[in-house]
């Protein structure tokens, strides 16, 4: 694919490697450099490209000439990725969104710094917020809403008319029945079957998705 834009990836780990590979192979973006926080930078290169400090990066790669993707995981309920998303925007960067050419997507209501991997099916009238990650092979049913800073892992089924609250993580092979709302800052463990709405700031585990209560 012809490269018409230049971008920097925030991150220097396995996820950043995968993100860089997909952007180079399947988008208009040329990855020119990587960045991390100064306290975490141990080398000057990553994947044979410059690795620089996020602090002051705008002086090396001006936002007028380069876009950025903040490639961070679901750590601390996606709050770390959310923090650097806002910091990158404050520096003036346009935060790119990637939708795999191997995904079926029937909506254009998708925010920035959102990364949609291969083999997702996104039905009509779906809305996806900013700073969202949809890993491989999910189904997002019609009229559903995925709020900001959500991480959906793989082979998750979200039925129609669902709402997933901000900063929620959904583990592999989970299923949401139609018409339910998942609260903000939820963690749904692998294989959860969700048939009822959930409260904010909760953890759900097991095939019957019982609320997890930490033992004192």
From TrEMBL:
The lineage of its organism: Bacteria, Pseudomonadati, Bacteroidota, Cytophagia, Cytophagales. PANTHER family: ACETYLTRANSFERASE, ACYL-[ACYL-CARRIER-PROTEIN]--UDP-N-ACETYLGLUCOSAMINE O-ACYLTRANSFERASE. This is Sugar O-acyltransferase. Belongs to the transferase hexapeptide repeat family. It comes from Roseivirga misakiensis. InterPro entries: AcTrfase_PglD-like, Hexapep, Trans_hexapeptide_repeat, Trimer_LpxA-like_sf.
